[in-house]
Amino acid sequence: xxxxxxxxxxxxxxxxxxxxxxxxxxxxxxxxxxxxxxxxxxxxxxxxxxxxxxxxxxxxxxxxxxxxxxxxxxxxxxxxxxxxxxxxxxxxxxxxxxxxxxxxxxxxxxxxxxxxxxxxxxxxxxxxxxxxxxxxxxxxxxxxxxxxxxxxxxxxxxxxxxxxxxxxxxxxxxxxxxxxxxxxxxxxxxxxxxxxxxxxxxxxxxxxxxxxxxxxxxxxxxxxxxxxxxxxxxxxxxxxxxxxxxxxxxxxxxxxxxxxxxxxxxxxxxxxxxxxxxxxxxxxxxxxxxxxxxxxxxxxxxxxxxxxxxxxxxxxxxxxxxxxxxxxxxxxxxxxxxxxxxxxxxxxxxxxxxxxxxxxxxxxxxxxxxxxxxxx
Length: 376
Ligand code: NAP
Known about the structure:
Blueprint: E1 2-7, H1 12-23, E2 30-36, E3 51-52, H2 56-60, E4 64-67, H3 71-83, E5 89-92, E6 103-106, H4 108-120, E7 125-128, H5 131-144, H6 147-150, E8 152-160, H7 168-190, H8 196-207, H9 239-251, E9 260-263, E10 272-281, H10 287-295, E11 301-303, H11 308-314, H12 317-320, E12 326-334, E13 337-348, H13 351-368
Parallel strand pairs: 1-2, 1-4, 2-3, 4-5, 5-7, 6-7, 8-9, 11-12
Antiparallel strand pairs: 8-10, 10-13, 12-13
NADP nicotinamide-adenine-dinucleotide phosphate is lined by residues 8, 10-14, 36-38, 53, 68-71, 93-95, 128, 131, 164-165, 167-169, 172, 349-350, 353-354.
């Protein structure tokens, strides 16, 4: 049995990870210990007292630690834990360690070879990559594996990112915002003498009222959007936009040669990130070849016909949410020239964007028999 300590198991990513481990019957094969940053001593999901996530000795007793707690926690605990001599496997959902040279990113449908090589080379730190990056690569890997031969020059993406990407408290607040909005418009909606402008006035008033909860999100997101995700990088980009280039290149085993850029926008979807993508080629590729390559990106990637019915039915958060499908569609050339390819993709960011690569990493570790001795 693999002995694994879980930190952050009740957060957005952690809950989905636990669900998936349960669903796949894998939790039964894990000797799990649960940690908490806020409720050490209270009963955990296994009805055992939660260990403190700041107790270095308790952490060091684990050969494998999975943290879905966040970058602040990782920055606080990881260094001292390693400094204490702990040589276990650290698997992290947060971005704190992703760009460290001794951290390998995990998204095995894209970089299984790199993960295996890292394990053989004794790498002990693994991190899931940014959700939008993971979903983008799962969608277009078929164009990126041979990007040089295919003449791919750059990739641009405009995102429509779900609230869950910000965390559990933000999802709860988004729904609480909806409740306020619905409460404000219900009397107008139910009154046949009131028209659509009265409806809009009631909604806009509630959206800007002090009653709307904004503690977690900072601003209204229900019936709105936020075209800023993450901290500022100082060059006009947000951190989320910066990660697009840095992490995609690292996952592909590149060193920044392939430019990725774009605009990241938070929308009121709950689980799915959507992206409108432009891929620039040196010379146009036949569209049927493009579609065949996209469909071969991963076993979970499905390419939908560029028609109204398929798109509205299948290429939406409503249809993809809660599934492992990576939906791709709207594949067509842009007016700017046949070498500009446009497509749209939707994926559940809590699954392939967050929890699934971590769950699969535990399986890969098990397959490698990498039960590294605690502190050894
Ligand atoms: P989260 O939902 O905010 O949960 C993190 C921790 O916050 C929980 O483990 C819990 O810790 C505490 N917490 C506070 N209020 C909570 C509440 N109302 N419900 C549940 N837990 C609450 O964070 P997350 O979205 O899972 O993200 C964790 C890390 O993964 C972050 O570094 C994030 O950047 C990264 N990541 C997230 C996504 C995503 O889709 N959200 C994708 C990829 C990577 P205690 O139990 O110790 O109190």
